[in-house]
Specification:
Its main location: membrane. Keywords: 2Fe-2S, FAD, Flavoprotein, Iron, Iron-sulfur, Membrane, Metal-binding, Oxidoreductase, Transmembrane, Transmembrane helix. It is found in: Membrane. The protein is of the alpha/beta class. The protein is built from 14 helices and eleven strands. It folds into three domains: about 5-200; about 215-305, Elongation Factor Tu (Ef-tu), domain 3 (Beta Barrel); about 310-435, Nucleotide-binding domain of ferredoxin-NADP reductase (FNR) module (Rossmann fold, 3-Layer(aba) Sandwich). Helix content is about 50%, strand content about 15%. A five-stranded parallel sheet has the order 9-8-7-10-11, with helices on both faces. A three-stranded antiparallel sheet has the order 1-2-5, with no helix packed on it. Strands 4-3-6 form a three-stranded antiparallel sheet. Strand 8 (about 345-350), helix 12 (about 360-370) and strand 9 (about 375-380) form a beta-alpha-beta unit. Helix 2 packs across helix 8 (about 150-175) and helix 4 packs across helix 5 (about 110-120).
Length: about 450
């Protein structure tokens, strides 16, 4: 992130952060904190303001603003989103604890009585408490260990509730926030900041996809079974070249039938877009993806994107050489990339069993046509005989000049993380490593 636009974005975020802190200072954040109760309450006010601001930043980070996403990369935005979300919750919980403790010290009553008083006597505190609970639930269900046990559909529904949590929290910010209660510049600024965030969310998460859906008229043309549990979905529409999609990118797909209209899921293009059609290839690993085999030709589709910077434009290696490493169905964006990459290209495909994805014939034909090298590595990761696959030594054996190449990695998160660590161990530069992480 070194372009002038990137610096401008960072400056805007920091400037707003400075204004938020200034609101607290002008409200007597330091000068009026004479007693322990004052200091606790003052600390509660600043953590509350910062939590509210970070919640707005959280919304903007994944508002699907095209130029912002292209500038930073969707994987980086996802990482920032996760870190900012955790910071937001910590600030929010600190706000609740500090304010409660400060008011209890002032009122000199039992903790239970103070909590009861806050909920009954202060405007919208009950709503804010519910909002806090919703936001904590979102963070808990986003933890990897929990997501592995929660159906994606349930997690997605919970994740959407963060918007309700932010709204419920906003309802008490102006009526009860000492820094915002009086009409004036501070209150106007807070209104504008929240209104601008809402406008960005509606413009890029609602209005833009609907308008593009009307313009391009995407529909399913056919669904092809590539292998057991793996289907390719072919789509056509109008003026698809204007989407600006590139091999390696993905869309959030919303299929407009009764069973699927309520959810949008990220899937990469599995073939280079030609301006007339698009194709995705999906493995049935969850309820939603398994049911895609039942899609009917003619089903209308809303596609949010293209998203991601997992493209040939990210190549930085002076040699021009490329290594593609895929795990299972993670081959889809790399298969699309392979159509357009030139020069010395090596493709490594890690699978449990040969034929897992059903794209093997296509890959063999593409490799032959482009003069690339293909290594298919089959074996269950739980099998001791397969433990060495994609280890640093094995990668060096397969690709002796790996440190001279741009490396694109796509696969299950654990596999992608392990391969990335192994490549770094071998000395591959960070700027030559390209991965993509999806997020909703």
């Amino acid at each position: 992130m070194r372009s002038p636009v990137a610096w401008l974005v960072a400056a805007v975020l920091l400037a707003n952060l400075a204004v938020v802190v200034d609101l607290w200072l002008h409200g007597g954040g330091l000068t009026k904190a004479h007693t322990t109760a004052d200091r606790l309450t003052s600390a509660g006010r600043i953590t509350g303001l910062l939590a509210a601001y970070s919640a707005l930043v959280q919304v903007v980070l994944l508002a699907r603003i095209p130029w912002f996403e292209r500038l930073t990369g969707f994987d980086r935005l996802t990482v920032w989103h996760g870190r900012n979300g955790k910071a937001c919750i910590l600030l929010l919980l600190a706000h609740v604890g500090l304010i409660t403790a400060g008011y209890q010290q002032t009122d000199q009553i039992r903790l239970g009585a103070e909590i009861s008083s806050l909920l009954k006597d202060y405007p919208h505190i009950l709503a804010a408490t519910i909002g806090t609970g919703l936001m904590v639930l979102v963070v808990v269900t986003s933890l990897v260990i929990v997501r592995r046990r929660v159906r994606h559909e349930a997690w997605y529904a919970v994740h959407l509730s963060v918007y309700a949590g932010i709204v419920l929290g906003y309802l008490h910010e102006v009526p009860t926030g000492n820094d915002l209660t009086l009409p004036g510049a501070a209150q106007t600024y807070w209104y504008v900041l929240n209104a601008a965030t809402l406008a960005l969310l509606l413009a890029f998460r609602v209005v833009r996809p609907l308008l593009r859906g009307a313009v391009h008229g995407l529909r399913v043309t056919r669904v092809v079974e590539e292998a057991p549990g793996v289907v390719s979905i072919h789509l056509t529409g109008r003026r698809l070249h204007r989407l600006g999609a590139h091999p390696g990118q993905f869309f959030l797909w919303r299929f407009l039938d009764v069973r699927r209209v309520w959810q949008a899921h990220p899937y990469s293009l599995s073939a280079a877009p030609d301006g007339r059609s698009l194709r995705i290839t999906v493995k049935g690993t969850g309820t939603f993806s398994r049911r895609l085999a039942d899609l009917r030709p003619g089903t209308r589709v809303l596609a949010e994107g293209p998203l991601g910077s997992f493209t040939a434009a990210r190549r930085r290696a002076a040699s021009g050489k490329v290594l593609l490493v895929a795990g299972g169905i993670g081959i889809t964006p790399l298969r699309a990339l392979l159509e357009t990459l030139d020069g010395d290209v090596v493709l490594v495909h890690r699978v449990v069993e040969a034929g897992d994805t059903g794209l093997e014939d296509e890959l063999a034909a593409l490799v032959a046509a482009r003069g690339a090298t293909l290594h298919v590595l089959a074996g269950d990761h739980r099998d001791p005989d397969a433990a060495h696959l994609l280890s640093p030594a094995h990668l060096r054996e397969l690709v002796p000049d790996v440190t001279d190449r741009d490396v694109y990695v796509c696969g299950p998160p654990a596999m992608a993380d392990a391969v990335t660590r192994n490549l770094r161990t071998l000395g591959v530069r960070r700027r030559h490593l390209h991965t993509e992480r999806f997020a909703l």
